[in-house]
Design brief:
By secondary structure, the chain is an alpha/beta fold. Helix content is 25%, strand content 26%. It has three domains: 108 residues, Sandwich (Immunoglobulin-like), CATH 2.60.40.10; 273 residues, Rossmann fold; 91 residues, no CATH class. β13 and β14 form a beta hairpin. The protein is globular and about 80 Å long.
Length: 487
Protein backbone atom coordinates (compact mmCIF):
# COMPACT_ATOMS: atom_id res chain seq x y z
CA UNK A 1 0.00 0.00 0.00
CA UNK A 2 2.81 2.37 0.89
CA UNK A 3 4.53 1.43 -2.37
CA UNK A 4 1.37 2.29 -4.35
CA UNK A 5 1.06 5.68 -2.60
CA UNK A 6 4.73 6.39 -3.27
CA UNK A 7 4.28 5.59 -6.94
CA UNK A 8 1.27 7.90 -7.15
CA UNK A 9 3.18 10.75 -5.46
CA UNK A 10 6.15 10.17 -7.79
CA UNK A 11 3.91 10.22 -10.86
CA UNK A 12 2.31 13.47 -9.76
CA UNK A 13 5.77 15.01 -9.09
CA UNK A 14 7.07 13.90 -12.50
CA UNK A 15 3.96 15.16 -14.25
CA UNK A 16 4.31 18.52 -12.53
CA UNK A 17 8.02 18.67 -13.36
CA UNK A 18 7.40 17.80 -17.02
CA UNK A 19 4.63 20.36 -17.34
CA UNK A 20 6.95 22.93 -15.82
CA UNK A 21 9.68 21.86 -18.19
CA UNK A 22 7.35 22.35 -21.13
CA UNK A 23 6.37 25.81 -19.85
CA UNK A 24 9.97 26.80 -19.42
CA UNK A 25 10.64 25.67 -22.99
CA UNK A 26 8.14 28.05 -24.59
CA UNK A 27 9.09 28.90 -28.14
CA UNK A 28 10.24 32.47 -28.70
CA UNK A 29 7.73 34.51 -30.72
CA UNK A 30 8.63 35.70 -34.24
CA UNK A 31 8.42 39.49 -34.41
CA UNK A 32 7.66 41.72 -37.41
CA UNK A 33 8.00 45.52 -37.35
CA UNK A 34 6.77 47.95 -40.02
CA UNK A 35 6.82 51.75 -40.09
CA UNK A 36 4.33 53.82 -42.09
CA UNK A 37 4.87 57.53 -41.64
CA UNK A 38 5.00 58.04 -37.88
CA UNK A 39 3.08 54.84 -37.10
CA UNK A 40 5.06 51.84 -35.89
CA UNK A 41 3.20 48.52 -36.17
CA UNK A 42 4.39 45.35 -34.44
CA UNK A 43 2.98 41.85 -34.80
CA UNK A 44 4.20 38.52 -33.53
CA UNK A 45 3.41 34.84 -33.77
CA UNK A 46 1.17 33.21 -31.22
CA UNK A 47 3.15 30.80 -29.01
CA UNK A 48 1.53 27.55 -27.90
CA UNK A 49 1.20 27.40 -24.12
CA UNK A 50 1.80 31.12 -23.60
CA UNK A 51 -0.62 33.19 -21.55
CA UNK A 52 0.88 36.54 -22.43
CA UNK A 53 3.73 38.55 -23.94
CA UNK A 54 6.13 41.27 -22.82
CA UNK A 55 7.45 43.87 -25.25
CA UNK A 56 10.98 45.18 -24.61
CA UNK A 57 12.34 48.35 -26.18
CA UNK A 58 15.58 50.34 -26.02
CA UNK A 59 16.88 53.41 -27.86
CA UNK A 60 19.04 52.92 -30.94
CA UNK A 61 22.02 52.72 -31.01
CA UNK A 62 22.88 52.80 -27.28
CA UNK A 63 20.40 50.03 -26.35
CA UNK A 64 20.11 51.47 -22.85
CA UNK A 65 17.99 51.86 -20.82
CA UNK A 66 15.70 48.92 -21.62
CA UNK A 67 12.00 49.40 -20.95
CA UNK A 68 9.13 46.92 -21.14
CA UNK A 69 5.38 46.94 -21.73
CA UNK A 70 3.08 44.05 -20.68
CA UNK A 71 1.01 43.15 -23.76
CA UNK A 72 -1.33 40.59 -22.19
CA UNK A 73 -2.46 38.06 -24.77
CA UNK A 74 -2.30 40.50 -27.70
CA UNK A 75 -0.29 39.53 -30.77
CA UNK A 76 -0.05 42.98 -32.37
CA UNK A 77 0.10 46.66 -31.54
CA UNK A 78 0.47 50.06 -33.27
CA UNK A 79 1.64 53.41 -31.95
CA UNK A 80 2.29 56.87 -33.35
CA UNK A 81 5.76 58.11 -32.41
CA UNK A 82 7.48 61.49 -32.79
CA UNK A 83 9.73 62.23 -35.77
CA UNK A 84 13.21 60.86 -35.19
CA UNK A 85 12.15 58.04 -32.87
CA UNK A 86 14.49 55.07 -33.20
CA UNK A 87 14.20 51.92 -31.09
CA UNK A 88 15.23 48.30 -30.85
CA UNK A 89 12.24 46.07 -30.03
CA UNK A 90 11.94 42.42 -28.95
CA UNK A 91 9.42 40.14 -27.23
CA UNK A 92 9.15 37.31 -24.75
CA UNK A 93 6.26 34.93 -24.28
CA UNK A 94 5.37 33.76 -20.76
CA UNK A 95 2.98 31.61 -18.76
CA UNK A 96 2.51 30.83 -15.09
CA UNK A 97 5.76 28.92 -14.86
CA UNK A 98 8.32 30.89 -16.88
CA UNK A 99 9.26 32.87 -19.98
CA UNK A 100 10.51 32.03 -23.44
CA UNK A 101 13.74 33.25 -24.93
CA UNK A 102 13.73 36.58 -26.72
CA UNK A 103 12.29 36.96 -30.20
CA UNK A 104 14.33 38.31 -33.07
CA UNK A 105 15.34 41.94 -32.43
CA UNK A 106 13.88 44.48 -34.87
CA UNK A 107 14.59 48.17 -35.32
CA UNK A 108 11.74 50.67 -35.64
CA UNK A 109 12.78 54.04 -37.05
CA UNK A 110 10.59 57.08 -37.67
CA UNK A 111 12.25 59.48 -40.09
CA UNK A 112 13.58 62.75 -38.70
CA UNK A 113 12.93 66.21 -40.18
CA UNK A 114 14.42 68.31 -37.42
CA UNK A 115 17.12 70.80 -38.51
CA UNK A 116 20.79 69.90 -38.02
CA UNK A 117 22.13 70.36 -34.49
CA UNK A 118 25.37 71.85 -35.81
CA UNK A 119 25.52 74.41 -38.61
CA UNK A 120 25.81 72.82 -42.06
CA UNK A 121 27.33 74.59 -45.04
CA UNK A 122 25.25 74.58 -48.23
CA UNK A 123 25.89 76.06 -51.66
CA UNK A 124 23.23 76.66 -54.31
CA UNK A 125 24.09 76.79 -58.04
CA UNK A 126 21.40 78.93 -59.70
CA UNK A 127 20.44 81.92 -61.84
CA UNK A 128 17.46 84.30 -61.66
CA UNK A 129 14.72 81.94 -60.50
CA UNK A 130 16.94 80.53 -57.76
CA UNK A 131 17.96 84.05 -56.75
CA UNK A 132 14.32 85.08 -56.38
CA UNK A 133 13.64 81.90 -54.42
CA UNK A 134 16.42 82.77 -51.95
CA UNK A 135 15.42 86.44 -51.65
CA UNK A 136 13.96 88.02 -48.55
CA UNK A 137 10.63 89.86 -48.68
CA UNK A 138 10.87 92.91 -50.95
CA UNK A 139 8.72 95.15 -53.16
CA UNK A 140 10.85 95.00 -56.31
CA UNK A 141 10.54 91.42 -57.57
CA UNK A 142 9.31 87.94 -56.59
CA UNK A 143 10.77 86.36 -53.47
CA UNK A 144 10.60 83.01 -51.70
CA UNK A 145 12.44 83.62 -48.41
CA UNK A 146 14.38 80.37 -48.92
CA UNK A 147 17.61 81.94 -47.68
CA UNK A 148 16.16 83.13 -44.38
CA UNK A 149 14.29 79.85 -43.89
CA UNK A 150 17.46 77.85 -44.42
CA UNK A 151 19.17 80.19 -41.96
CA UNK A 152 16.60 79.46 -39.24
CA UNK A 153 17.10 75.75 -39.94
CA UNK A 154 20.84 76.06 -39.19
CA UNK A 155 22.23 76.04 -42.74
CA UNK A 156 24.99 78.48 -43.70
CA UNK A 157 24.11 79.22 -47.32
CA UNK A 158 26.36 80.43 -50.12
CA UNK A 159 25.61 80.59 -53.84
CA UNK A 160 26.99 80.92 -57.34
CA UNK A 161 25.56 83.16 -60.05
CA UNK A 162 26.23 84.42 -63.56
CA UNK A 163 29.95 84.81 -64.20
CA UNK A 164 30.98 82.84 -61.14
CA UNK A 165 34.03 80.64 -60.83
CA UNK A 166 36.76 79.14 -62.97
CA UNK A 167 36.12 79.50 -66.69
CA UNK A 168 32.99 81.56 -65.76
CA UNK A 169 31.26 78.23 -65.24
CA UNK A 170 28.51 80.02 -63.32
CA UNK A 171 27.05 81.10 -66.68
CA UNK A 172 26.41 77.46 -67.60
CA UNK A 173 23.56 75.84 -65.68
CA UNK A 174 21.52 74.17 -68.41
CA UNK A 175 21.05 70.41 -68.20
CA UNK A 176 23.72 69.66 -70.85
CA UNK A 177 26.22 71.77 -68.85
CA UNK A 178 26.21 69.68 -65.66
CA UNK A 179 28.87 67.17 -66.79
CA UNK A 180 31.25 70.11 -67.25
CA UNK A 181 30.78 70.91 -63.56
CA UNK A 182 31.03 67.41 -62.13
CA UNK A 183 32.75 64.99 -64.53
CA UNK A 184 34.44 67.07 -67.25
CA UNK A 185 38.10 67.75 -67.92
CA UNK A 186 38.08 70.87 -65.73
CA UNK A 187 35.77 69.54 -63.03
CA UNK A 188 38.48 69.15 -60.37
CA UNK A 189 39.29 72.86 -60.57
CA UNK A 190 35.62 73.85 -60.69
CA UNK A 191 34.63 71.66 -57.75
CA UNK A 192 37.51 72.81 -55.58
CA UNK A 193 36.25 76.36 -56.02
CA UNK A 194 32.63 75.30 -55.48
CA UNK A 195 33.29 73.36 -52.30
CA UNK A 196 35.22 76.30 -50.82
CA UNK A 197 32.93 79.15 -51.95
CA UNK A 198 31.48 81.11 -49.01
CA UNK A 199 30.08 84.26 -50.65
CA UNK A 200 26.41 84.89 -51.39
CA UNK A 201 26.86 86.25 -54.95
CA UNK A 202 23.39 87.79 -54.79
CA UNK A 203 23.43 89.47 -58.19
CA UNK A 204 20.26 91.33 -59.22
CA UNK A 205 17.70 88.91 -57.82
CA UNK A 206 17.16 90.09 -54.25
CA UNK A 207 19.29 89.96 -51.12
CA UNK A 208 18.77 87.24 -48.54
CA UNK A 209 19.61 86.70 -44.90
CA UNK A 210 22.02 84.09 -43.65
CA UNK A 211 23.88 83.12 -40.48
CA UNK A 212 26.54 85.63 -39.53
CA UNK A 213 29.24 83.08 -38.68
CA UNK A 214 30.83 80.76 -41.22
CA UNK A 215 31.44 77.49 -39.35
CA UNK A 216 34.46 76.80 -41.55
CA UNK A 217 35.33 73.89 -43.79
CA UNK A 218 33.91 72.95 -47.17
CA UNK A 219 30.30 73.11 -48.27
CA UNK A 220 28.61 69.87 -47.26
CA UNK A 221 25.41 70.19 -49.34
CA UNK A 222 25.50 70.95 -53.06
CA UNK A 223 22.16 72.15 -54.53
CA UNK A 224 21.91 72.77 -58.26
CA UNK A 225 19.10 73.83 -60.57
CA UNK A 226 18.54 74.61 -64.23
CA UNK A 227 16.07 77.32 -65.22
CA UNK A 228 12.69 77.10 -66.98
CA UNK A 229 14.03 76.93 -70.59
CA UNK A 230 15.17 73.42 -69.59
CA UNK A 231 11.51 72.38 -69.38
CA UNK A 232 11.47 72.60 -73.19
CA UNK A 233 12.48 69.02 -73.98
CA UNK A 234 12.09 67.23 -77.29
CA UNK A 235 11.56 63.53 -77.92
CA UNK A 236 9.08 61.22 -76.24
CA UNK A 237 8.22 60.80 -72.55
CA UNK A 238 9.46 57.19 -72.41
CA UNK A 239 12.69 57.65 -74.39
CA UNK A 240 15.58 55.74 -72.76
CA UNK A 241 18.84 57.46 -71.78
CA UNK A 242 21.40 58.10 -74.50
CA UNK A 243 24.65 56.19 -74.19
CA UNK A 244 26.67 59.38 -73.57
CA UNK A 245 25.64 62.95 -72.71
CA UNK A 246 25.53 65.46 -75.56
CA UNK A 247 24.32 69.03 -76.11
CA UNK A 248 20.71 68.24 -77.02
CA UNK A 249 17.63 69.31 -75.08
CA UNK A 250 15.91 65.93 -75.29
CA UNK A 251 14.47 63.45 -72.82
CA UNK A 252 17.16 60.92 -73.78
CA UNK A 253 20.03 63.31 -73.25
CA UNK A 254 18.65 64.72 -69.98
CA UNK A 255 18.54 61.17 -68.60
CA UNK A 256 22.07 60.49 -69.89
CA UNK A 257 23.37 63.64 -68.19
CA UNK A 258 22.02 62.71 -64.78
CA UNK A 259 23.21 59.12 -65.12
CA UNK A 260 26.65 60.54 -65.87
CA UNK A 261 26.54 62.66 -62.69
CA UNK A 262 25.99 59.59 -60.53
CA UNK A 263 29.42 58.28 -61.54
CA UNK A 264 30.90 61.20 -59.61
CA UNK A 265 28.35 61.48 -56.81
CA UNK A 266 28.97 57.89 -55.72
CA UNK A 267 32.64 58.73 -55.13
CA UNK A 268 31.78 61.59 -52.73
CA UNK A 269 29.96 60.08 -49.80
CA UNK A 270 31.05 63.11 -47.78
CA UNK A 271 28.73 65.40 -49.79
CA UNK A 272 24.94 65.56 -50.16
CA UNK A 273 23.83 66.47 -53.69
CA UNK A 274 20.34 67.95 -54.07
CA UNK A 275 18.86 68.15 -57.57
CA UNK A 276 16.23 70.87 -58.00
CA UNK A 277 14.15 70.19 -61.10
CA UNK A 278 13.77 73.01 -63.61
CA UNK A 279 10.62 75.10 -63.07
CA UNK A 280 7.82 75.00 -65.65
CA UNK A 281 7.80 77.38 -68.62
CA UNK A 282 4.85 79.43 -69.92
CA UNK A 283 3.25 78.09 -73.06
CA UNK A 284 3.92 81.49 -74.69
CA UNK A 285 7.67 81.06 -74.13
CA UNK A 286 7.93 77.90 -76.24
CA UNK A 287 9.13 78.60 -79.78
CA UNK A 288 7.26 77.04 -82.69
CA UNK A 289 8.84 73.74 -83.71
CA UNK A 290 8.07 70.25 -84.98
CA UNK A 291 6.67 69.25 -81.56
CA UNK A 292 4.01 71.33 -79.81
CA UNK A 293 4.57 73.19 -76.54
CA UNK A 294 2.16 70.76 -74.84
CA UNK A 295 4.21 67.79 -76.04
CA UNK A 296 7.52 69.29 -74.94
CA UNK A 297 6.12 70.34 -71.54
CA UNK A 298 4.76 66.79 -71.07
CA UNK A 299 8.27 65.55 -71.81
CA UNK A 300 9.57 67.75 -69.00
CA UNK A 301 6.98 66.27 -66.65
CA UNK A 302 7.98 62.75 -67.68
CA UNK A 303 11.68 63.46 -67.20
CA UNK A 304 11.12 64.90 -63.72
CA UNK A 305 8.98 61.90 -62.80
CA UNK A 306 11.88 59.72 -63.95
CA UNK A 307 14.23 61.62 -61.64
CA UNK A 308 11.87 61.08 -58.71
CA UNK A 309 10.85 57.48 -59.38
CA UNK A 310 13.55 55.76 -61.43
CA UNK A 311 16.86 57.59 -61.52
CA UNK A 312 18.10 56.44 -58.11
CA UNK A 313 16.79 52.88 -58.29
CA UNK A 314 19.77 50.66 -57.61
CA UNK A 315 21.88 53.58 -56.34
CA UNK A 316 23.34 52.24 -53.11
CA UNK A 317 23.86 55.48 -51.21
CA UNK A 318 21.90 58.24 -49.47
CA UNK A 319 23.95 61.21 -50.69
CA UNK A 320 21.69 62.18 -53.62
CA UNK A 321 18.12 63.49 -53.49
CA UNK A 322 15.66 65.32 -55.75
CA UNK A 323 13.17 68.11 -55.09
CA UNK A 324 10.48 68.42 -57.78
CA UNK A 325 10.27 72.21 -58.01
CA UNK A 326 8.53 71.75 -61.39
CA UNK A 327 5.65 69.78 -59.90
CA UNK A 328 5.17 72.12 -56.93
CA UNK A 329 4.82 75.09 -59.33
CA UNK A 330 2.35 73.52 -61.80
CA UNK A 331 -0.79 73.49 -59.63
CA UNK A 332 -1.96 74.47 -56.17
CA UNK A 333 -2.70 70.82 -55.35
CA UNK A 334 0.53 69.37 -56.76
CA UNK A 335 3.08 68.72 -54.06
CA UNK A 336 6.51 67.38 -53.16
CA UNK A 337 6.79 67.63 -49.39
CA UNK A 338 6.98 65.95 -46.02
CA UNK A 339 3.40 65.07 -45.17
CA UNK A 340 1.92 62.87 -42.43
CA UNK A 341 5.32 61.48 -41.51
CA UNK A 342 6.44 60.56 -45.03
CA UNK A 343 7.66 62.00 -48.33
CA UNK A 344 4.69 62.86 -50.52
CA UNK A 345 5.04 63.41 -54.27
CA UNK A 346 1.57 63.86 -55.69
CA UNK A 347 0.22 65.07 -59.02
CA UNK A 348 -3.44 65.90 -58.50
CA UNK A 349 -3.67 68.19 -61.53
CA UNK A 350 -2.07 67.08 -64.76
CA UNK A 351 -0.92 70.51 -65.92
CA UNK A 352 2.59 71.08 -67.22
CA UNK A 353 2.79 74.88 -67.40
CA UNK A 354 3.25 77.39 -64.54
CA UNK A 355 0.43 77.89 -62.08
CA UNK A 356 2.37 80.76 -60.51
CA UNK A 357 3.96 82.79 -63.34
CA UNK A 358 5.05 86.37 -62.82
CA UNK A 359 3.19 87.23 -66.03
CA UNK A 360 1.78 85.86 -69.27
CA UNK A 361 5.16 86.36 -70.93
CA UNK A 362 7.34 85.88 -67.85
CA UNK A 363 7.88 82.32 -66.60
CA UNK A 364 9.66 83.32 -63.41
CA UNK A 365 7.63 81.99 -60.46
CA UNK A 366 5.78 84.68 -58.52
CA UNK A 367 6.03 85.19 -54.78
CA UNK A 368 3.12 82.86 -53.98
CA UNK A 369 4.73 80.02 -55.89
CA UNK A 370 8.18 80.64 -54.45
CA UNK A 371 6.85 80.71 -50.87
CA UNK A 372 4.98 77.47 -51.50
CA UNK A 373 8.20 75.89 -52.76
CA UNK A 374 10.07 77.00 -49.64
CA UNK A 375 7.40 75.60 -47.33
CA UNK A 376 7.56 72.23 -49.07
CA UNK A 377 11.30 72.03 -49.67
CA UNK A 378 12.96 72.84 -46.35
CA UNK A 379 11.40 70.01 -44.27
CA UNK A 380 12.32 67.65 -47.11
CA UNK A 381 15.89 68.94 -47.04
CA UNK A 382 16.03 68.27 -43.29
CA UNK A 383 14.81 64.73 -43.94
CA UNK A 384 17.36 64.17 -46.70
CA UNK A 385 20.16 65.57 -44.54
CA UNK A 386 19.27 63.44 -41.51
CA UNK A 387 19.09 60.35 -43.73
CA UNK A 388 22.45 61.24 -45.29
CA UNK A 389 24.30 61.96 -42.07
CA UNK A 390 23.01 58.78 -40.43
CA UNK A 391 24.21 56.69 -43.37
CA UNK A 392 27.63 58.31 -43.57
CA UNK A 393 28.51 58.61 -39.89
CA UNK A 394 31.86 56.84 -39.49
CA UNK A 395 32.90 58.32 -36.13
CA UNK A 396 31.48 57.32 -32.77
CA UNK A 397 32.18 59.13 -29.51
CA UNK A 398 32.70 57.76 -26.00
CA UNK A 399 32.73 59.64 -22.71
CA UNK A 400 32.39 57.97 -19.33
CA UNK A 401 29.53 60.31 -18.39
CA UNK A 402 27.70 59.80 -21.68
CA UNK A 403 28.09 63.51 -22.56
CA UNK A 404 29.95 64.36 -25.79
CA UNK A 405 29.01 68.00 -26.26
CA UNK A 406 26.85 68.35 -29.37
CA UNK A 407 28.41 65.30 -31.03
CA UNK A 408 26.38 62.23 -31.82
CA UNK A 409 26.26 59.27 -31.48
CA UNK A 410 27.72 59.31 -27.96
CA UNK A 411 28.25 56.31 -25.63
CA UNK A 412 29.34 55.88 -22.04
CA UNK A 413 31.45 52.74 -22.63
CA UNK A 414 33.83 51.58 -25.35
CA UNK A 415 31.93 48.31 -25.57
CA UNK A 416 28.67 50.10 -26.35
CA UNK A 417 30.36 51.86 -29.26
CA UNK A 418 31.92 48.63 -30.53
CA UNK A 419 28.53 46.92 -30.43
CA UNK A 420 27.16 49.28 -33.11
CA UNK A 421 30.38 49.99 -35.03
CA UNK A 422 31.03 48.72 -38.53
CA UNK A 423 34.33 47.96 -40.21
CA UNK A 424 36.16 51.23 -40.84
CA UNK A 425 34.55 53.07 -37.92
CA UNK A 426 36.67 55.42 -35.82
CA UNK A 427 35.86 55.57 -32.10
CA UNK A 428 37.07 58.70 -30.32
CA UNK A 429 37.28 58.25 -26.52
CA UNK A 430 37.46 61.04 -23.95
CA UNK A 431 40.26 60.92 -21.38
CA UNK A 432 39.65 58.86 -18.28
CA UNK A 433 39.56 55.23 -17.13
CA UNK A 434 37.37 52.65 -18.87
CA UNK A 435 37.19 49.29 -17.05
CA UNK A 436 36.41 46.00 -18.74
CA UNK A 437 38.07 44.46 -21.78
CA UNK A 438 36.05 45.59 -24.82
CA UNK A 439 35.33 43.01 -27.52
CA UNK A 440 35.23 43.58 -31.31
CA UNK A 441 33.10 40.74 -32.66
CA UNK A 442 33.06 41.10 -36.45
CA UNK A 443 35.52 41.13 -39.35
CA UNK A 444 37.29 44.27 -40.50
CA UNK A 445 39.21 46.92 -38.62
CA UNK A 446 37.93 49.43 -36.12
CA UNK A 447 40.12 52.27 -34.84
CA UNK A 448 40.11 53.69 -31.30
CA UNK A 449 41.78 56.99 -30.50
CA UNK A 450 41.98 58.40 -26.97
CA UNK A 451 42.77 61.34 -24.77
CA UNK A 452 40.05 63.59 -26.17
CA UNK A 453 38.74 66.57 -24.24
CA UNK A 454 35.06 66.75 -23.29
CA UNK A 455 34.33 68.73 -26.46
CA UNK A 456 36.39 66.36 -28.64
CA UNK A 457 38.31 69.26 -30.13
CA UNK A 458 41.79 68.17 -29.06
CA UNK A 459 43.69 65.28 -27.50
CA UNK A 460 45.00 66.74 -24.24
CA UNK A 461 44.63 63.83 -21.80
CA UNK A 462 45.02 60.06 -21.62
CA UNK A 463 42.51 57.25 -22.05
CA UNK A 464 43.19 54.20 -19.88
CA UNK A 465 41.57 50.95 -21.03
CA UNK A 466 42.07 47.19 -20.99
CA UNK A 467 43.45 45.52 -24.10
CA UNK A 468 40.60 44.98 -26.57
CA UNK A 469 39.69 41.52 -27.81
CA UNK A 470 39.07 40.78 -31.50
CA UNK A 471 36.98 37.59 -31.70
CA UNK A 472 35.33 37.82 -35.11
CA UNK A 473 38.31 37.68 -37.42
CA UNK A 474 38.84 41.43 -37.38
CA UNK A 475 41.32 43.75 -35.68
CA UNK A 476 41.35 46.77 -33.39
CA UNK A 477 43.81 49.58 -34.10
CA UNK A 478 44.77 51.75 -31.12
CA UNK A 479 45.97 55.30 -31.72
CA UNK A 480 47.46 57.79 -29.27
CA UNK A 481 46.69 58.74 -26.60
CA UNK A 482 45.75 55.38 -25.06
CA UNK A 483 47.40 53.53 -22.16
CA UNK A 484 46.60 49.83 -22.10
CA UNK A 485 46.48 48.32 -18.59
CA UNK A 486 46.08 44.77 -17.34
CA UNK A 487 42.69 43.68 -15.96
Amino acid sequence: MKTAKLLIILCVFLATFLVGGIALALDAPALTATVTGTTVSLSWSSVAGATGYTLYYAPYPKASPIGNIPMGDKTSMSASLPDGSDFYVALQAYNGVGSSGYSNIERATVAQITPPLSTVKLIFIHHSTGGNWLADSNTDQPYGELGSTLMTNNYFVSATNYGWGPYSIGDSTDIPNWPEWFTGANSATILTALFNENDQNVGDFGSWSRLTTDPGGENKIIMFKSCFPNSDLFGEPTDPPSTEPNEQFTVSNAKAVYNNLLTYFQTRQDKLFIVITAPPENRNDYASDYQTPDHRAANARAFNNWLINDWLKGYAYNNVAVFDYFNVLTATDNHHRWYNGAVQHVINTNYNFPAYPTGEWDSHPNTTGQLKATTEFVPLLNYYYNRFITATSSTLYVSSNGQCGDLDPCYSTIQAALDVAEAGTIIEVADGKYPGAPEWKIAGTVTISGGWTSTFTEQAGTTEMYAPLATGGGSVKLLPIIRVVAP
